[in-house]
Design brief:
Length: 100
């Protein structure tokens, strides 16, 4: 299980004004950020794993293997999954079958 790397940032916090943000400062004037990553050993491992996944996802070989795995799933008959597979292959979106 991957460790969470940042504190929650619920919608209620999205529009906090500057005065409220100043009130949330930690002792010593350090600003507490709800989106900044933590730096413990578990967090560093999770960030390293995320970076490795992004790097792997940039490889056409890995993306092709993912598409082959997806194609074997029963859900592949769903249009949204086939559309995702096209994107992973670097193909343009399929033409819509709906009539205008």
């Amino acid at each position: 299980m991957q460790r969470k790397t940042a504190a929650s940032y619920p919608p209620a916090r999205w529009h906090l004004d500057e005065d409220r943000r100043r009130q949330e400062q930690q002792p010593g004037g350090e600003q507490r950020s709800s989106v900044a990553p933590q730096h413990g050993a578990g967090n560093r491992a999770a960030l390293a794993e995320a970076r490795a996944l992004v790097t792997a996802g940039r490889s056409s070989v890995v993306r092709s293997a993912l598409v082959r795995t997806m194609a074997a799933e029963p859900a592949f008959r769903e249009r949204w999954l086939r559309s995702l597979a096209r994107e992973l292959r670097g193909l343009p979106p399929a033409l819509s079958r709906t009539c205008s």
